[in-house]
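Hi C.,

You asked whether I'd gotten around to modeling the 331-residue construct. I have! Everything is below, sequence then structure, no commentary in between.
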Amino acid sequence: MRRKILFLLIIIFSVQAAVFSDKPGKVAGEQRKRDVKRQVVIWRQPRDIRTRNLFYGSGGQAGQPRGPFRFIKENRGGSNPKFVVEDARGVRWKVKFGNEAKPETAATRLLWAVGYFADVNYYLPRLRVAGLPRLGRGQKYVSTDGTIHGARLERVVKKVDDWSWFDNPFAGTKEFNGLRVMMALMNNWDLKQNNNAIYNLRGRELRYVVNDLGDTFGKTGGDWSRSQGNLEDFLESEFVDEITPKTVDLILHSRPPILYAMAVPYYVKRVRMRKVAEDIPRAHARWMGGWLNRLSNKQIRDAFRAADYTPHEANAYTGKVRERIRQLNEL
């Protein structure tokens, strides 16, 4: 009798073990199937590049934020003042002001123009927000009547994760190397990993995006005069450093002042950023130059007009960008 009971217990436990051990296998298998179906992308060919509207950018004219705006919360992260608002359609926007607002608006449009994914953003010279409290940062940009002068509004999208310039699924591809070219072309000296985002597009696509482009169109370098959106600094900066038979080094200084050398991890990380623009295959740099060359001067100028640069500034920026495009195509 005992043997029969023991035999039955063994059978019961064996069946339970098989059932419970099978569940994780099924779940893992289903997850693998979902992962196979989900694309991982960093670039998509722009079939309409000659007609893309760089004034409105990836969001288009219809995607513009609509007032009135309601204050949601202040965001104390990063080096520039930011807060979140909700517009009349219930869309939430991250408001950034300060030196990064204008260059970031222009930079996202140029990236999007040549096929890279970019955040939807718009620049507003003036902004009124209902319920705006006294801000912990950036109050100097708010006038006594509550008007904010000069703000970039970026549509809020949930970030799944960030990604590294030195460890990602696209290393070695012309699409990734083209993005490296774009960082140097725009003088983006702040290539931290947390300035890159992975977005999950409705479970079907993981998009790799450079989602903080505020430190562009100024001066890069290791002194205290690094800048953003400074026309004079951008015009004086150089682009191509060294050319070999197969590769090109573009100029992208990101080393901080020597005083920061005492903070070893920070200093090493900053110095390493320079490698993003080094050892780029010449063929890949020319490939990106070819796409950029399809843009008209009006399209490039519209990217800077969208950021509320003056006509003189927009024309000067356009001329410098066009010069760099020529250098790429001559490699």
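If it helps when you're writing up: The chain has a mean pLDDT of 87.

Thanks,
B.
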